[in-house]
Amino acid sequence: MDLSRRELLAAAGKFIVLSGAALEAFESPSGAVAADSKYRMADHWWAMTIDIQKCIGCGNCVRACALENDVPEGFFRTWVERYEVNGDDMEHPQVESPAGGIHGFPARNTPGAKSFFVPKLCNHCAHSPCVQSCPVGATFVSPDGVVLVDQQYCVGCGYCVQACPYGCRYLHPTKHVADKCTLCYHRITKGLTTACCEACPTGSRQLADLKNPRDPVHEFLRVNAVQILKPQMATGAKVFYKDLDGSVR
Amino acid sequence: MRRIFEGWGHLIQLACVAVALVLVFFAIRQELVPPEFGKYGHYRPASLDEIAARTPVFAGREACASCHDDIATAKGKGPHANVGCEACHGPLSRHAQDFTSQKPVLPDTAKLCVICHEADSAKPKTFPQVVSHEHAGDTACGVCHNPHQPKL
Asked: Burial level of B55, CB count in 10 A (0-12/13-18/19+)?
């Protein structure tokens, strides 16, 4: 092939123009979440507080979550565990969670044992292992601090399910994509609280916005003995437990 | 000028193939990568809007109080002040939009109250608990207690 200078310049020009257009497509700005609403992602950093001393193990949160989010039967975005620590054997607590606590717990009275309920859900980690393990960019931490799954983009490989140290993810049985707690993103962006917090009768769970200086979470963190789950894993977990026993894993 | 490129034909051929491959790469990339991918991070920003667009199922207690302020006021004076309406009556966002479209659940107090108040050693000691069959036998809680103001 013999290329004239004219042809060479034309080809080079097309290359520059086309790659420039491609570059622009990546960088052009867009509307934020629900461009018409007043919600600004940059103003929020969502978290949750859980007061162990208020949880009564009624299972209202589990039921509310399932109704709000169409959670398939046998899978849980949030669940409640009943812990029982006998004597000084803190290494081996008895943990039960019949059907995730969705029907509450059968009444048990074991005098002398230390027992309590621990509600669990996605910790919406700031440095989340699940996000780091996703090979396709289907799971991510949103600009307002919520770990979400793009179910259109998820290939269902399940790496994130294995990566989560808290067991908070599952593969949806019919959609075959990763599914998890969204911290009721469709509610909190509309000014509502999460379904689990709305249904909690004792106020054990509270949605918290760490970027809101008037949120009671700041006092909660300041005046109480607060712990996160598996702090040694440095996940940046944002579910803060008040009066959590050391036996909880 | 033309003389400079004499004997370079094979190199120019190669360069053209390389340019064509780069163009094909960008064309395919533009086709496959969703618009604005990477705007906030390594993900598709439109998925935020899609997740946020879902309709809530629970209306929230403020929505209930905007019509049923009499019950909300009465409940606010008792120990159930901080219990959300939908904690017992079920999710009611459709009822809040149009009250004819969805009827709230009227719970059976013989089954509802014990979910929270049946005695269990894992419950906080300050939380009011009863062993229901010792406390009332088979009588439903609602016979004596008004759930909105349960203190007798």
From this structure: exposed
Q: Are A109 and B119 in contact (CB under 8 A)?
A: yes
A84: chain B residues, CB-CB within 8 Å: 122
**Nearest Cα residue in chain B from A139:** B43
Entry pTM: 0.85
Nearest to B57 among A11, A67, A193 (CB): A67
CB contact (8 A) between residue B120 and residue A33: no
Q: Convert A209-234 to b/e letters by CB count within 10 Å (16 or more is b).
A: bbeeeebebeebeeeeebbbbeeeee
Mean pLDDT to the nearest integer, A211-217? 96
CB atoms within 10 A of CB B111: 10
Tokens of A41: 């992602």
Collapse the DSSP code of A167 into the 3-class scheme (helix H, G, I; strand E, B; otherwise coil) and give the result: coil
Whose CA is closest to A105, among A93, A92, A91, A115?
A115
Q: Do A26 and B116 touch (CB under 8 A)?
A: no
Q: Tokens standing for A69? A: 């989010």
Q: How confident is the model at residue A94 (pLDDT cuts 50, 70, 90)?
A: very high
In this prediction, the residues of chain B whose per-residue pLDDT falls under 70 are: 1-2
What is the DSSP code string of A3-23? --HHHHHHHHHHHHHHHHHHH
CA distance A60 to A77: 13
Element (H, E) at B12: helix B9-32
Which tens digits make up the pLDDT trace of B115-126? 999 999 999 999
Inter-chain touch A15–B23, beta carbons under 8 Å:
yes
Asked whether the beta carbons of A123 and A168 are under 8 A apart, the reply is: yes
d(CA A68, CA A63): 9
Write down all domains in chain A, each with its CATH number in brackets: 41-127+180-242 (3.30.70.20)
Q: Evaluate whether ipTM surpasses 0.95.
A: no
Given a cut of 90, whether residue A87 has pLDDT beyond it is: no
The pLDDT of residue A229 is above 90:
yes
pLDDT of residue A12: 62
pLDDT over 50 (residue A140) = yes
Residues 6 or more apart whose CB falls under 8 angstroms from that of A203 comprise: A51, A54, B82
